[in-house]
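assembly run, all chains below
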Amino acid sequence: MSELIFELSQKGRCASAQVPHVVNDKIDIPLEWLRQDIPVLPETSELQVVRHFTRLSRRNFSIDTQFYPLGSCTMKYNPRGVHRVAMLDGFLNRHPLALEMNSQGYMECAYELQEILKAVTGMKGVSLTPMAGAQGEFAGVAMIRAYHRSRNDLARTEILVPDAAHGTNPASAAQCGYKVREIPTDVEGNVDVEALRAAVGPQTAGIMLTNPSTLGVFEQQIQEIAKVMHQAGGLLYYDGANLNAILGKVRPGDMGFDVMHINLHKTFATPHGGGGPGGGPVAVSERLIPFLPMPTVTKTTEGFYRWLTEEDCPQTIGRLSAFMGNAGIILRAYAYARLLGKEGMHRIAEYATLNANYLSMRLKQAGFKLAYPTRRASHEFIITLKNEAKEWQITALDVAKRLLDYDFHAPTMYFPLLVPECLLIEPTETESKQMLDAFADVLIKIMHEAKTNPELLKNAPYYLPVRRLDEVRAARELDLVYKADAEKVVAE
Amino acid sequence: MPFIPHTEQDVKDMLAAMGAASIDQLFDEIPASLRVKDLPPIPSQLTEMELSRLMRERAAKDVNTLNFIGAGAYEHHIPAAVWDVTSRGEFLTAYTPYQAEASQGTLQLLYEYQTMMASLMSLDVSNASLYDGGSSLAEAVLMAARTHRKNKTHRILMPATVHPLYRQVVKTIVSQQDIEIVEIPYDPATGKTSIAVLEKMTKENLTALVIPQPNFFGVLEDVDALTHWAHAQNALVIGVVNPLAMALLKPPGQWGKNGADIACGEGQPLGVPLASGGPYYGFLCCKQEHVRQLPGRIVGRTVDQSGKQGFVLTLQAREQHIRRAKATSNICTNQGLLVTASTIHMSLLGPTGLRKTALVCHQNLCALREKLSKLDGVRPLFSSHLFHEIVVELKQPVESVLTELAKNKIQAGFNLKKYYPELGNALLICVTETKTPEDLDLFVSQLHDVLRGLAHV
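ok done. output:
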C-alpha cells in the first residue's frame, strides 16, 4: 500500500531550504486580486518527498529494469551518456529567446541533426519543432493541405488511411479538417492496391502509411502505391513510428514518400519518460519545403547559425510550439546519432530485424500462431491467441498480465485492431539473445499454464504492487483528484 | 557495436536456428532497387568520451549570463532533489502507462499531479499534460468549441496581450477548423484588455474569451470583470495563466461570479529548466461538467480485484487509440517526465513555498521598477499592477542595447519590436526570485552606461 503524498502532509511543514527569504510582506496588488484560500499542495519535508517519489518509481516497469517488448514503441536502451551531455549547463540554462550570438552551441547541434535526418530519410528539408509523433503527423498533413491550396487545388478533401494504421493517423487527418477513408489490408498484410485504385480521385489529398506496417511486414508494393497516389495528384505521408526497422537500409524518400515524421523517442533512443516527452521532427521532399513549420536553423556562409522564421518562409504552416520544440530531446537524438555515426545507422535496422525474426521463429516452433506466417518479420511481429482463446477461454490480456508476474513487460495488446487476440512484439536491437530466449521460455511456460490451469492466467498478476485493476469502475465512478474528506466525485 | 549486445557467435547461432545465410537475407522482401547502397555524408561514430568533449565545447558557446528574459520561460531555483529523483531510470525509461499494474508509480504520481494542478487553478479536474503552453491554449480553444454546442461556427476573442507566440500556435492548430480567432486590442495606457473594447465586438457566435493572467506585458488583467462580461454573453472563459503566480493571485476557478471554465498554460515555472524552450509541458484544467471534452491522458483512482487502491488511465473513449478520427485530440505521447519534475517541485515547496517564491518575484520586480523609473532614457510604459515582467520604452534602439549588454554578460530582456511595433523601442524585462539586490543594481548601472554610450555614438 502506497499512501498518497497528501496523506503525509502536516500543516505548517515545508522543505524550507528551497524557499527564498521573504524580508517583508509588501505587495503592490489589490487585495481582491489575491488568492485567499490555500491550494491542496502537500506540506512535507524534503526527505518525505524524496522517499515518497523514490518509492513510487519502484512501482514502475521501465527499460532500465525490465525487458519491454512493447510493439510499435521501440523500447530500446536509452544511453546514459546521451542524457548527461544534454544536461550540460550551457544547454540547460539557455533561454529560448536568447540572442543568436548566445546560442551558437545549441543551434549547431540542431542544424547538424537536421542534416543527419535528411541523410537517413532521403528527404530534402527538415523541421525539428513538432513535439511528438502525433504533432509531426498534424504538421505533415497540414503541409499536404497547404501544398494543394497553394496550387489552388481545393477539391481535395480526403485522406486515405489503411485500416491497420495507428489511431493518431486518422485523428491527425481529422484535426486538419480532412475526411478519413479507410483502405483495407489483404490477407498477406499488404495494402489492398485494387481497393486503393478504386478509392483515389480528384478528392484525394494523400495517404498516411507506415512501412513496415503496424502488422510487422514490409509493404512490398510501395512503389506501385506511390505511383497510384501521385497519378491521382495525392501525396504520401510516412508515419515514422516504425523507422527503426529500416534505418540506414531503405529510405522513405526513395520509396516515393513526400512527407514524414520521425519519432526521436523511438528510433533515436530518447527516453519516453512515462508518457513523454517525445520528439516528432518532420522531413519533406523538395516541393513541400516552403511549408515546413517554423523555426528551423540555417547556416550562413560565414558559419553563423541563425533561426529561419515566418519572415523568411512566408508559406510556412506556422508554429507548433511557443519556442522551438523539445530542444532537450533534439540534443539527445543528436548525441545518439553521433555515437552511432555513419557506421552505426544500418546496424540498428539489421539487429532489430534479426532479433524480431529470431524471436518469432522460436515462438512459431513452440506452437504459437503468427499472424502472417508466410512473411518475414520486420523489427516486430504479431502472434494471435485466437485458438488458445477458444480452447482454454483465456485472452491476450490474460497472457499479458501473467507476463508481468514473470517480470517481463507485456507486448502491445489488441493492436492492430484487425488481428484478433493479438500481441505485437518488438524486441529492439539492444536486447541480447539470452534475453530473447528467456522471454520465449516464459511465454511457452505461460501457454502450458493456460492449458493446465487457465484460472492462473485469468487472475494474474499476483506479484505486482496491485492485482488486476477495475477499469470499468474507474470510468464509471470518476475519481480524478484527491479530496481530503474522501468524498468521491461521481460522474453525471 | 554501440548498444548492440550480440557476439559473433550469437549472430551465427541465431541465423543457423532460422536457416538464414546472413542478416541481409532477412531484408529479402524489400525490393532490391530500394535498398540503400551508401548513405550520404554522416559524421563517423564517436566514443562517449569524444562526444562528451564535443558537447562540452558546444555548451560552452551558449553563455548563460545574468538573465532578465522571461516572455513565457522563467528562470527559477529548482531544488536539487527534483531532477535527482526525476532522472531515476524507472521514471525516465518507462512508456505511457498502458499496463496499469506495472505502472503504478507513474499513475499515482499523475493522480497526485492532477490534484495539485486542479487545486492550484481552483478547478475540478486536470489532464495529465499536453506539449507546452502554446499548444495547451490551442487545445483549450478546440475544447471550448466542442463544449459550446449551440454555436455552429465559433468566434474566439483573443486579447493581443496573450503571448504572441501562443497566438501563432493557436492559429496554426485551429485554422484547419471552423473557428475564427478575433484579436482584441489592449488599452495603450494600462496595457490591459478593457471591457469598453470588448463591448464593440460582434457578439454573434461568441464561443469563448481568452484571459491571460498575468498578460504578456506582465500586467494583471481585470479578471473578475472580464469573466463576468464573457459569461453574460454566454461565452466560455479560458484562463491562460502562469501556474506559479496562482499561488499568490486569484486563480481562474475563482474569477468573476462563476469562475473560468477552462484554465491552461505553461508548466515550466514549476521545476522545469529553461533548456532552450523545451521539453516543457502544457497543463489543462476544467470544470467537472466539461471533463469528457478534455483532451489527453487522464488518470483515475480505482480498486484492484482484492479491493486495494490503484490507478489507471481512464475515460479512454475520448482518445485517438479508441475513437480514431472522432477523438477529442490526436495527442498520444505527452510530456510525462516534466510533470514528474513539477509534481516533485510542488511537493517540496508546498503552498507556502510557492506563495513565497511568487511574492519575492513580485517584490523584486517592484524594486527594479523603482530603480528603472529613476533612470534617464527609460520609461515604464503601463501604469498597472505587475507580476514577473515590466515593459519599458528606451531612448535607444532595443536591438543595439541588447547586443551591447550581452557583451557585458547581461541578457537584458525581450525586444517587443517584432510583435508590438506600435510600442516603439519597447523592452520586456523579467525578474524572478533568483535576482539579488546587487544583480538589480548591476543591471540598472549597466543599462545606464549602455544607453549613455549609444547616445554619444
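Chain B is about 35% helix and 15% strand.

Chain B has two domains: 66-74+351-455, 80-344.

not gonna interpret more than that til we talk
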